[in-house]
Amino acid sequence: MTRSSRIAGFYTRPLAERRRALAEVASLSDAARAWLDGGGGLDLAVADRMSENVVATIGLPLGVALNLRVNGKDHVVPMAVEEPSVIAAASNAARMVRLGGGFTADADAPIMTAQIWLDEVGDADRACVRIADEAAALRALGDAAIPRMVARGGGCRDVTARIVGDGIVVVEVDLDVGDAMGANLVDTVAEAVAPAVARLTGGRVGMRILTNLPRGRRVRASCVVPAEAVGGDGVVAAIARASHFAELDAARAATHNKGIMNGIDAAAVALGQDWRAIEAGAHAFAARSGRYAPLATWQRTERGLAGSIELPMAVGIVGGGTHTAAVKAALEVVDVASARELACVIAAIGLASNLAALRALAGEGIQRGHMRLHQRRHDEAAASPSTRTGEP
Q1: Each residue of 76-86: pLDDT tens digit?
Q2: Is 75 considered catalytic here?
Q3: Phi, psi (degrees; rounded to nearest 5) at 86
Q4: Residue 60: CB partners within 8 Å, gap ≥ 6?
Q5: Residue 374 catalytic?
Q6: Mean pLDDT in the chain?
Q7: CB atoms near residue 83 (< 10 Å)
Q8: What pTM did the predictor assign?
Q9: Which domain holds residue 193?
Q10: Pair 33, 95 in one domain
């Protein structure tokens, strides 16, 4: 059955009906359905194995963004966030983009980079030459440390060195981590290769760790939106102007990018990704020119708007935190076949979130929509017996 991310009247339905509709649309397994019906909580015993000094768990609402179509395929996207407007805004913007054909996206091969930092290198230029000469042997050392990944078709792809300061050299090992996020694999390779690198350079090893700016693991998404979908030519002009402001001013770009990360982070949390690493990479990438800039931009076209986004995206569908019932269910819902496809979906959610924010700024303003949803949340909390002082 072809999945559709269009579920009419989804937000108006009672909670139980929403769960049933999602289970049917996403063809969820019995295990995923049972997890949803149980409220979606994290078992304390599981939490205790996941983290340290565990005393309890803390919950976030888990919702789904609807209407998303990426590369001709529909996706329902789980999002975990306390802010009510984030999911509503992303779903609404995805509906607008859908009228223009949906999002187009592509992701680079899943290349992560291990860094081995050395100082007290006597002849840095000669050290870099020696690393280049021994690159094949260093790759083999790295591959020997991750045999299971090599067996699955991944492994070390390149070894380079560069001088970053007086007597300071950084050696970088690029490796294909397949469908994993890859942090543990990268750190393993860095530690395995470091002794040989130290012998070759004559330097003292300082650090051996991944970089959270995976320049070789970028994702791009774009879309065209008809003018009538966003509210007409006047709104189109205002959105394009607001996007241009972010290109001119770092202070505005920070808020522009925060709106993007509203969607990306919420999806990453729900899907068991390292959202902190994604945040670090995104903001470092935004400042790669030496000046902080927007991750996404919008321009006017003859039809309406054209938007695009590019950023690093280290995500995975195996390993890490993907073994929990929550993430397994979320991955069933989003329906992706690879880490690269997941990156495309998350980038599209980020671009949708950006469009929603700019449209609100260009139209009624951010506060009106925000406060309407905040008031609904406040009213519902006030009506709940569990919130009344002195009541059980």
Answers
A1: 999 999 987 99
A2: no
A3: -65, -50
A4: 80, 81, 82, 269
A5: no
A6: 92
A7: 15
A8: 0.90
A9: 111-210
A10: yes
pLDDT of residue 390: 33
- Looking up residue 159, the CATH number of its domain turns out to be 3.30.70.420
Question: Distance (Å, rounded) from C-alpha 387 to C-alpha 379?
Answer: 11
Is residue 385 over pLDDT 70?
A: no
Q: Is residue 82 flagged as an active site residue?
A: no
Question: Does some domain include residue 380?
Answer: no
Could you say which of 244, 258, 328, 374 is catalytic? 258
Q: Are residues 118 and 151 in the same domain?
A: yes
Torsion angles phi and psi, residue 178, rounded to 5? 65, -130
Burial of 79: CB neighbours in 10 Å, binned 0-12, 13-18, 19+: buried
b (16+ CB within 10 A) / e for 160-172: ebeeeeeebbbbb
Q: How many CB atoms lie within 10 A of CB 157?
A: 16
Between helix 84-98 and helix 250-270 the angle, nearest 10°, is 100
Edge to edge, the sheet with strand 296-300 lists 104-107, 218-226, 304-312, 296-300
Residue length of the chain = 392
Mean pLDDT is lowest, of 49-58, 352-361, 381-390, for 381-390
pLDDT (0 to 100) of residue 183: 95
- pLDDT-derived band at 379 (thresholds 50, 70, 90) equals low
Residue in 74, 174, 176, 274 annotated catalytic? 274
Choosing from 73, 244, 370, 374, which is the catalytic residue?
370
Active site residue 83: yes
Radius of gyration of the chain (CA): 23
Q: 296-318: per-residue pLDDT in tens?
A: 999 999 999 999 999 999 999 99
For 346-380, b/e burial (b = at least 16 CB within 10 A) is bbbbbbbbbbbbbbbbbbeeeeebeeebeeeeeee
Tell me if 168 is assigned to some domain: yes
Options 83, 106, 134, 279, the catalytic residue: 83
